[in-house]
Design goal:
CATH class of the largest domain: Alpha Beta
Mean pLDDT: 96
Distance between the termini: 25 Å
Helix content: 25-40%
Structural class: alpha/beta
Strand content: 25-35%
Low-confidence stretches: none
Largest sheet: 7 strands, mixed
Number of domains: 2
CATH topology of the largest domain: Quinone Oxidoreductase, Chain A, domain 1
Bound molecules: NADP nicotinamide-adenine-dinucleotide phosphate
Oligomer: single chain
Shape: globular
Order of helices and strands: EEEHHEEEEHHEHEHEEHEHEHEHE
CATH architecture of the largest domain: Alpha-Beta Complex
């Protein structure tokens, strides 16, 4: 009998129950591809958006009526079990992690990816679960703090949403970059966010983080909780409001502040950056992890068979850090 892999298909845009398990023929790696046996994969807010086909304008890239690439999942970790004839960076037996990007199909037993994509060797000390989420919160928050906000040591940063995937990584990365870190979260997450290295934690159920007279050099709004207009009053001169959730309001604020004013609004689509830009950033994250400065927060680990339940929890908007399927 021919070998098969197990994956999850998105039958049509919609709720988590649109996901269905499928068997597909095991691919043979092309000349520059590697075949990976997946040990762990991430279940992210971005994966939920792909599944739901939202925001609707994203369907121009994903497919208008249904997803053009119908498999679920992007972040993964596993080991190489076959390589193409021209593969140079990896060998059979190597532990690797990274992301499938717009190829999708990471919530699966196996995947074939080009060695020149966003793939890295996995250090033995990094678990497959931790490695699988590196391309979501950690990579995105490093991109936003280092490249988009251009945070420098000693600056004051406010992280809105310090307990999510992006926020829990951002608190640790900003602290490692030598910033003075304030983060917001709900009562149940105050202890966690303080333990990640925040100098101050604001419980948003008791206090509006933007109501205090404090001024910040950077406001990183990990969830699109507020707007540039509202955050402006809490920005220092030359302050930057950076937000990974694109909206028309943010787009207009970016256009306006690129030409006028000292306070700026900025966005970036991290997953669309070139692998040549993302790989050195992943190397930096590995170094931070090795030095004990960055530990991904994993809230729940589900079996791959329970991907629908994992998506339902991810979409609650109340997950703590990251969710993984194994
Ligand atoms: N542009 C990019 O490159 C990029 C890349 C990746 C992701 N994203 C986007 O980034 C966004 C964030 O993703 P994520 O995975 O970090 O989210 P998430 O993990 O789902 O966020 C959930 C967390 O947010 C907290 N929270 C909810 N409302 C809050 C509020 N008003 N103030 C403070 N904390 C609040 C929740 O805690 P409580 O329930 O206790 O409040 C929970 O811990 C998503 O929209 C995703 O699509 C963008």
């Amino acid at each position: 009998m021919a070998a098969t892999l197990t994956a999850w298909t998105i039958r049509s845009y919609g709720a988590p129950d649109r996901l269905a398990p499928v068997q597909r023929p095991m691919p043979t790696p092309g000349p520059t591809e590697i075949l990976i046996r997946i040990r762990a994969s991430a279940v992210t807010r971005a994966d939920g958006m792909m599944r739901a086909g939202r925001p609707r304008f994203a369907r121009a890239f994903l497919g208008f009526r249904r997803p053009r690439k119908d498999l679920s999942g992007t972040g993964l970790s596993g080991e190489v079990i076959a390589v193409g004839a021209q593969v140079r960076r990896f060998a059979v037996g190597d532990a690797v992690f990274g992301e499938a990007g717009l190829n999708f199909g990471a919530n699966a037993s196996h995947i074939c990816l080009d060695e020149n994509g966003v793939l890295m060797h996995k250090p033995a000390a990094l678990s497959h679960e931790d490695a699988a989420v590196m391309c979501d919160g950690p990579l995105t928050s490093l991109n936003f703090l280092q490249n988009v906000a251009r945070l420098v040591p000693g600056e004051r940063v406010l992280i809105l949403g310090g307990s999510g995937s992006l926020g829990s990584a951002a608190v640790q990365i900003a602290a490692a970059m030598g910033a003075d870190v304030t983060a917001s979260c709900s009562t149940r997450n105050v202890e966690l966010v303080a333990s990640l290295g925040a100098d101050r934690v604001i419980d948003y159920t008791k206090q509006d983080p933007l109501a205090a007279p404090d001024r910040y050099d950077v406001i990183y709004d990990t969830l699109g909780i507020t707007t540039f207009r509202k955050a402006r009053q809490s920005l220092a001169q030359n302050g930057r409001y950076v937000c990974p959730v694109l909206s028309l309001g943010l787009l207009l604020a970016m256009l306006r502040t690129s030409a006028f004013g000292q306070r700026k609004a900025r966005f970036s689509a991290t997953g669309l950056l070139k692998p040549e830009i993302l790989r050195p950033m992943l190397a930096k994250l590995i170094k931070m992890n090795t030095l004990g400065k960055l530990e991904p927060v994993i809230e729940r680990v589900y079996p791959l068979d329970d991907l629908i339940a994992a998506h339902e929890h991810m979409e609650s908007g109340h997950k703590r850090g990251n969710i993984v399927v194994v």
